[in-house]
Amino acid sequence: MSRKKHYFPDLEWLIISNQDYSFSFAAKGGHNLEAHNHNDVGSFLIADKEEQYIVDLGAGEYTKEYFDLNTRYNYVNTRSISHSVPIINGCEQRSGNYSSNILKQIEINNVEEFMIDLTDLYPSQSKISSYIRTYKINCDLKQVIIKDSISFKEEEEYQVIQTFPSYIKPQLIKENSQINFEGREQNLTLDFEKKDCHYKMSTLYFNSHKGLKKKFYISQLITNKSGRKYSQEFVLNLKKINN
Q: Which InterPro entries does this one have (predicted)?
């Protein structure tokens, strides 16, 4: 099946869609010193031509405080907590001249692999020594596999909170190991290994660029564990709803 792919090496953005736009995926590398910056390096979104399933909230309401670096990151739009990147030992990504490193961007047998080193984005308080995120995108299957591998400096208790934002209210199903986002025409499922993590859903609000109050949901998969290694895989599948 033909597909459309755009990779922007200067921005470190990858955008892929299938031919009829019933599946679109985007992920970004880059840095947190961009104009109108959000702390979102390594984040992704999944959409079809009707709606987004895993979202980026976009710009918030333009106010004086929104553009003041002392208060900008008090807004949920700009923070990591509203993007599909983890919070590690209580630490969100830091703003400033901190960047990702693209380790791999390659296509094999119609599967796109995009590997990003995100170590530099997290402060020393996170206690990480390495953080690698790998995306494998299969447009034919409308599937994305994400693997996060994190190493810590010391062997001790750690916490990793994975966050998946959506305008669609999620449901936890399949013996508590699958999150379901039911859209108008398609359904996105997110499968995870529940052995070492538990699920939490929160409802949050923000003011849009036009000043409208909007609601969204964040699904969080929380891991509390002892050791020096964290490894978790997430499998996301987008499928048409059978009426």
A: Hepar_II_III_C
C-alpha angle 152-120-162 in degrees, rounded to nearest 5: 60
Q: Which tens digits make up the pLDDT trace of 146-188?
A: 999 999 999 999 999 999 999 999 999 877 799 999 999 999 9
User: Model-level pTM?
Assistant: 0.94
Mean pLDDT estimate for the chain: 94
Half-sphere exposure of 185 (CA within 13 A, CB side): 9
Q: What is the pLDDT of residues 91-147, one digit of tens each?
A: 999 999 999 999 999 999 889 999 999 999 999 999 999 999 999 999 999 999 999
Map residue 194 onto helix, strand or coil: helix
Domains of the chain: 3-240 (2.70.98.70)
How far apart (Å, rounded) are the C-alpha atoms in residues 95 and 169? 29
Distance CA(161)–CA(57), nearest Å, equals 19
- Strands across the sheet with 13-18, in order? 3-8, 13-18, 24-28, 44-47, 52-54
What CA–CA distances, in Å, run from 48 to 7, 17, 18, 155, 226? 19, 9, 10, 42, 39
First to last CA, the chain: 25
Phi, psi of 212 (to 5 degrees): -90, 135
DSSP SS3 for 169 = coil
What does the DSSP 8-state code read for residue 21?
S
